[in-house]
Amino acid sequence: MRLDYLTIFPDYLAPLTLSLPGKAVSGGLIEVHVHDLRRWTHDRHRTVDDTPYGGGAGMVMKPEPFGEAFDELAIDGATIVVPTPSGRPLTQALARELATRERLVFCCGRYEGIDQRVLDHAAERGELIEVSLGDYVLNGGEVAALAVTEAVVRLLPGFMGNAESLTEESHEAGLLEYPSYTKPAVWRDREVPPVLLSGDHGAIARWRRQQSLDRTAARRPDLLHGAQAAGEWVIASAVPADAPELLTLQLACWVTEALVNDDLSIPPLHEGLADVEASVRDWDVYVVRVAGRLVGSVRGRVVDDEPTVWEIGRLMAAPDLRGRGLGRVLLEHIERAAPPTVQRFRLFTGLHSEANLRRYKRAGYRVVATHDGPSGPVVLEKPQRRAPRT
Ligand code: JD8
């Protein structure tokens, strides 16, 4: 890949010869050419800017130096990358896209920006990509050009020592990365999470996935929309702030159940916000959101005086999403979340909850007890069949 940079501050791009891009150059993967834009000025002051037509503060970069640079550098057919606050946000997906190009030509603006005719002209001679680093204002395009370069060059085949580490990265998988630890196992009374010392690669992989999901749900819920749009139910650990929506979902689900059973005595109907807040504290509670709406949940805990029993409860799917497999996905998730000491799962349902009874029996549960009272509950259990350790 060939990379050209047009800038009035060539020294600002010196980092291109260091670290990552530096190695790529020495490895022959890329060739880097930094050009001082003033090379294409012809007046004594080597002028690259002038006052804006229509008035207003600041100066605008003149079109002529860019045009002559384009001609001399023969940029036809190349991808012209113009950093600007109004550009496409730089994402891993855009970096992957740019990594497929043969040639990138960066136009690094300063002042109030570059005369718009330069961009229109570039779009006629090649592929114009206007890119933004983020929703904040910088003084020029050089920093963005460096960031785009690093994000793109590291994706070039043969660049990263082990390609595998690329696929593992956050954003590559559309999620934020899980927390990492290294020796010592205890530092300033802080321990490394025991699962990471267990050697159980399956459990480690599940823990890391859940950490990525929880972080993404807490810090970047917008990133989850992609996964959901792709039809994937993204399950994250509940946080106290989820309690109000959990209560609303619970009432919606159990009002339906009560109507079916014609029985308003079902306990979940009579729980309040405090009960749900306590549940988030005392149980392992998981939630599913679609486009930010909390649409599903389930909880699990080890039964007080039965340490090998994992009690599952409050399995809920928003009434408008019934029949889409969300209940099954939540049940499988809460079973996988059980600690290694668990040998069987236990859950309860209403005597008249035909649909629930059918679903649980399909999932391998068997009725082990029926408590009195017109609508149950019915107690179902299933042995925990652990996948052989990998
Ligand atoms: C290019 C000139 C400065 C911007 C008046 C301040 C990218 N994420 C980003 N924030 N800012 C930039 C950026 C800023 C630039 C130029 C990129 C060229 N400026 C201008 C408009 C307001 N001054 C950027 N990528």
TrEMBL record:
Subcellular localization, as worded in the UniProt entry: Cytoplasm
Catalytic activity: guanosine(37) in tRNA + S-adenosyl-L-methionine = N(1)-methylguanosine(37) in tRNA + S-adenosyl-L-homocysteine + H(+)
Residue ranges constituting the N-acetyltransferase domain according to the UniProt record: 233-385
The UniProt record lists the keyword Cytoplasm: yes
Keyword hit for Zinc: no
Binding locations of S-adenosyl-L-methionine: G109, L133, G134, D135, Y136, V137, L138
Main location: cytoplasm
Pfam families the UniProt entry points to: Acetyltransf_1, tRNA_m1G_MT
Keywords carried by this UniProt record: Cytoplasm, Methyltransferase, S-adenosyl-L-methionine, Transferase, tRNA processing
EC number(s) reported in the record: 2.1.1.228
Spans traversing the lipid bilayer: none
Similarity remark: Belongs to the RNA methyltransferase TrmD family.
NCBIfam families associated with the record: PRK00026.1, trmD
PANTHER family: TRNA (GUANINE-N(1)-)-METHYLTRANSFERASE
Cited function: Specifically methylates guanosine-37 in various tRNAs.
Subunit structure: Homodimer.
Protein name: tRNA (guanine-N(1)-)-methyltransferase
Lineage of the organism: Bacteria, Bacillati, Actinomycetota, Actinomycetes, Propionibacteriales
